[in-house]
Amino acid sequence: MTSQWQLRAAFAARLSDMYGREVPAYTTLVDVSREVNEDVLRAQGADAERLGSISRVTAERHGAIRVGTPQEMQQVARIFGALGMRPVGFYDLREAATSAVPVVSTAFRPVDGAELARNPFRVFTSMLTPADPRFFDDDLRARLTTFLAGRELFPPELLALADRAEAEGELPDADAERFLQLAVQAFELSTEPIDKAWYETLERVSAVAADIGGVRSTHINHLTPRVLDIDELYRRMTGRGIEMIDAIQGPPRWQGPDLLLRQTSFRALAEPRAMRGTDGSVVSGALRVRFGEVEARGIALTREGRARYDRLLTLVDEQAAARPTADRAEVARSVWAEHVPATEHELAARQLAHFTYQVVQDRPQDGTRPPAGVTELVRQGWLRAEPIVYEDFLPRSAAGIFQSNLTGEGSRNNDRAGTAYDIDWLSAAIDREVLDPFDLYARQQDLSLAKAARALEMPGALG
Ligand code: OOG
Ligand code: NI
């Protein structure tokens, strides 16, 4: 029998092999990430593993895929459900982007600590929003909807195996093998000729819309390794002559602990794709849609911490706009130094970031009673705080990554009102609850505190 986590690990590994064959520069990115991680480990020792063991970090990947309809999203949810991955978070990239990125997204990932430790594979999954009149007029919407309704991304055999794996928690080895083959195949780049006129019609609205709705299949857009020093990675990739996007998205490099998520990518590469012209002839064309992204993960922020992060982004925007010659990263660094506590201890005490708490086993046992309150318990050596790693994504960074890899701005008509989508809409559309990431981190923290309170025989909740 092959269990869900084994399916997940095998799927991630095979997807990586497949993507490495399709996009050789990805293999370079993985190699450079591994070299950087080894160097950081050598330089920092155990500190380098504070946010995850080196074996987890080395194996860690997130993928990105894009689909066209709620039905397709629901099928994706079944396939990832088979791998023990649940939808977490709702990202509205239409609002986070200034150019035309007509998608809303979620991420499928394991949610349980033990499952994340076994294999943390996650997939950022975006769905096109044809109903949004800011991007699509009635005629184009009708054509797009018909086109999407007429394609099949995932064969029924794959979905049936997925449902079984989800319901039973495992698959017999032969079925697991079949499931993995079909699942990986579903995300390969298709060689079927693309209808050039249709693709270009959509491209005028949005390159993302064309990538999703201009073809009859889906594909993995990128597969992202995790690196312990993303600034160093950026330098080394540039040194190898690989063209990176302009910036590292997310928090700036600074003196304090790594927070949330920092991401960057190499620019989308031209890939040969067969194109069919209006006269029916097939020619070899090229499209730039797939890129190579890399990320560094930090500590999960609380709702309050995240609200502060969002406010600081706005503050950095304002200050950078007021000082057009200043380097944005420098501006961000000084804003952070001023507004973000620079130690884990302070972040915890001010409830800006999430931690789990363990009772210190070798604390002095002289019969004294523990003090009240988590901060004091940590300060006086009763509890140890371990940071919880951020397992999710950031809408503004995601929009930045999308935009820096688009060939054109596309078009959007901001005079029209957008169609509203939210986490509840998405839950209903895919027929399963899209989980709130903040709740997941809070639950993990609260469980550890409840356990600590029991161990210390402290009645009532800590926190
Ligand atoms: C997704 C872009 C966002 C991330 O890691 O934030 C993303 C896409 O290009 O489909 O991958
Ligand atoms: Ni990504």
| N- and C-termini, Cα separation | 42 Å
CATH fold name of the largest domain: 2,3-Dihydroxybiphenyl 1,2-Dioxygenase, domain 1
Bound molecules: 2-oxoadipic acid, nickel (II) ion
Class from helix and strand fractions: alpha+beta
Question: Can you put this structure into words, describing what you see?
Answer:
The protein is an alpha+beta fold and 463 residues long. The chain has three domains: 2-299 and 390-432, Roll (2,3-Dihydroxybiphenyl 1,2-Dioxygenase, domain 1); 301-350; 354-387 and 436-463, no CATH class. It is 47% helix and 17% strand. The chain is built from 19 helices and twelve strands. It has helices spanning 4-22, 24-44, 54-59, 70-82, 93-96, 113-118, 138-149, 156-168, 173-186, 196-205, 207-213, 230-239, 303-322, 328-339, 344-349, 374-379, 395-404, 423-430, 437-455; strands at residues 2-3, 61-67, 86-92, 103-109, 122-128, 170-171, 194-195, 222-225, 261-276, 282-297, 355-359, 383-387. The chain has a five-stranded mixed β-sheet. Strands 7-9-10 form a three-stranded mixed β-sheet, sandwiched between helices. Helix 1 runs parallel beside helix 9. It is globular, with a radius of gyration of 23 Å. The two termini are 42 Å apart. 43% of the residues are buried. The model has no long low-confidence stretch (mean pLDDT 95). 2-oxoadipic acid is lined by residues 64, 66, 124, 126, 221, 263, 293, 393, 397-398, 401-402.
